Amino acid sequence: xxxxxxxxxxxxxxxxxxxxxxxxxxLLSSLDQPDEHIDSLWRKEVxxxxxxxxxxxxxxxxxxxxxxxxxx
Length: 72
Known about the structure:
By secondary structure, the chain is an all-alpha fold. Helix content is 75%, strand content 0%.
């Protein structure tokens, strides 16, 4: 890590928790760049799942039923 980055990190860690959280959110958001290809793939996946649900090919499962599998 570059010395300037180390200094920024040192100062950031001294901030109150809410300010550190906001800073972390801004930093992470800056890394998340839109990708139209990936977005279109997810859109198609969502549409396919909704259509499968409406046509009866898949069913919704209640949250409690899903979680009960992992509680055992």
